Structure formats: C-alpha cells, structure tokens
Amino acid sequence: MNRSRAISNLTSLVWICMMVSCVTTNIADYQNTEFDRSALVDAAALGTGDIIEIRVHKHADLSGVYEVPPTGDIDFPYIGKLIVAGKTSSMLQNTIRTQLANGFYVNPTVTVNVKERRSKKVFVLGQVKKPGAFVFEDNMTIVQAIVLAGGFTSLASRNSTKVRRVENGTETQMNIPVEQIITEKNTKNFQLIPGDIVYVPEAVL
Length: 205
What we know:
Layout (H helix, E strand, L loop, with lengths): L2 H19 L4 E3 L8 H8 L6 E6 L7 E4 L5 E4 L3 E4 L5 H13 L8 E7 L4 E6 L5 E4 L6 H7 L12 E7 L2 E7 L1 H6 L13 E4 L5
Parallel strand pairs: 1-10, 7-11
Antiparallel strand pairs: 2-3, 2-6, 4-5, 7-8, 9-10, 9-11
C-alpha cells in the first residue's frame, strides 16, 4: 500500500469514526445555513500564539509586536496588564485607545494588526494532495481551504465534499459542491469557521 493510499484510508477512518460517535448530527443545505453571528466574532477573536502589532501614532515607545501568551494578557506601557485573548483587533484597539486617553494622551490614534494567526485551525482530509490542519484566515472559504491542502487528487469526488461543524454542542454536516462553486459564477461559496472539518470523499467509479 503506497503512502497516499494509506493517508486516504486513515482520514476516511477518522471521518467515519467521528460520524458514528456523534449522536446529534444534523444534515443541512449549505446554501440555507444561517451563521451563528457569535461564531464569526469568535473566529476573529485573538488566541494563544497569535502575533499582533500594536501601533500608537507618533509614539514609537508604545508600539510593538506581541505574541498572545497562554495567560491571554500582555504588559502594555501605562496600562499594565492588558487582556487580549478573546478580543477582536478592533475591540483591542478601542480598549487601548480608551485607557491611554484616560489621563495619559489626548485622542491617541491606535491600530492593531494581526500579523499571524496560529490559534485557530481548520482541517482538510480525504482526497486532497496535502491533508492536514491549516491556520484559519479571516473570511476563509472552502475553496481557499482546498487550495491550501494542495487541491484535489485525481480520485476526488469534487462535488461531494463534506463539512462537519459543531456549534453550541450540535454537529451539522453539509455537502458542498466545490467544483461547481469554482466553475459556476452563480454558485454560492461557503465560508468556514475555526474547527470546521472538510472531508473530500473518493469518487465512486
């Protein structure tokens, strides 16, 4: 058995085991699936390992690059302990601006940029060339995830791609016609959230 076949069999087994072990699976039409808006906020929130750059205009001494530690907070000049984990970059921006304006600076201009995301991942398994875990990117779509995984193999059932998602303790499985999304302009793309598992099955000949 060659390596690619072994990986395919292993990822297929993992997918089957997940499907069998979960008793709350719902099958959904991806085009009619409503996003839990809190999930989108969570997707954008900072987490352990993320690299951020904080800049305060005209104050180089207050600007710097930080890695979010496991504790979720950093030590920031004049503010002290600053909780960053669980906040979006815009939320953190507002927090820093408000606290610096509280007796330190007049109308400070603060920007927070996410230089690298490491805390959130999506998983792409099955008939792709490089199956594995990939760092989640803001507004990531299923097409982007397939590209990151090296694209489909020649054995892939491209329009039968499945996404497993767990929200609020409930698992949903959706069938996504990825090739149709790529080739037909009017077909809606599918947006992923952190933790999604994408599985590309083998085509039945």
